[in-house]
Write a structure and sequence with these properties.
This is Adenylosuccinate lyase. The chain has twelve helices and no strands. The chain has about 180 residues and is mostly helical. The chain folds into two domains: about 90 residues, Alpha Horseshoe (Leucine-rich Repeat Variant), CATH 1.25.10.10; about 100 residues. Helix 5 runs antiparallel to helix 6, helix 7 runs parallel beside helix 9 and helix 8 runs antiparallel to helix 9.
Length: about 180
């Protein structure tokens, strides 16, 4: 975010670095106001949402969910971190919706990891559904599938046995699926 703020200044004549420093020093009300202020760049909204999320302020929930579904992996990772700390009861449902959306599979890695961290009732069903869809031969999203396998192994829920058994036949998932199955007992 700092790099984006610094890069913004020379090209647009804006006060990117000053805005960055102001957001670092801002209190919750100023941060919340910046989430809806017109004309702010994405990095500024991301910083405000991240700081509010880490502070446990639920006003950050919706912007963080939008960032969790962003095409830029570092933004997704930061949003997932803040959402895990935020502990909003809507988080697991939102992460499950993002993880299971077949049109957004390329961006599902962080929602999958967040579901594992949350250990919510939605976690195992969402991870098994996502993994089942990704077991097709030559599926390009094997990293998301691997995250599902690892997550299901971490969660240790016996409902995952069938999909993990099927994952053993996938060359890139076999070792992790076998380890996950051992963890089920």
């Amino acid at each position: 975010m700092r790099a984006e703020a610094e890069a913004e200044a020379p090209s647009t004549g804006s006060a990117g670095p000053a805005r960055y420093e102001a957001l670092l020093a801002a209190g919750p009300e100023e941060l919340a106001a910046s989430l809806t202020s017109a004309g702010l760049p994405l990095w500024a909204r991301e910083l405000a949402a991240y700081r509010l999320g880490l502070a446990g302020d639920r006003r950050a929930f919706e912007p963080l969910v939008l960032l969790l579904n962003h095409r830029d992996p570092p933004r997704c990772a930061a949003a997932a971190t803040a959402l895990a700390v935020l502990a909003d009861p809507r988080t697991a449902r939102a992460a499950a919706a993002l993880a299971t959306n077949g049109l957004r599979t390329a961006y599902a890695l962080h929602p999958v990891r967040l579901l594992t961290a949350l250990r919510a009732p939605e976690s195992v069903p969402a991870l098994t559904a996502t993994l089942s869809r990704l077991l097709a031969p030559h599926d390009p999203y094997w990293r998301v599938a691997l995250a599902c396998v690892e997550g299901l192994g971490t969660l240790g829920d016996p409902r995952a046995r069938d999909v993990l058994t099927r994952a053993q036949s996938h060359p890139r998932l076999a070792v992790a699926a076998t380890a996950a199955l051992r963890g089920l007992g």
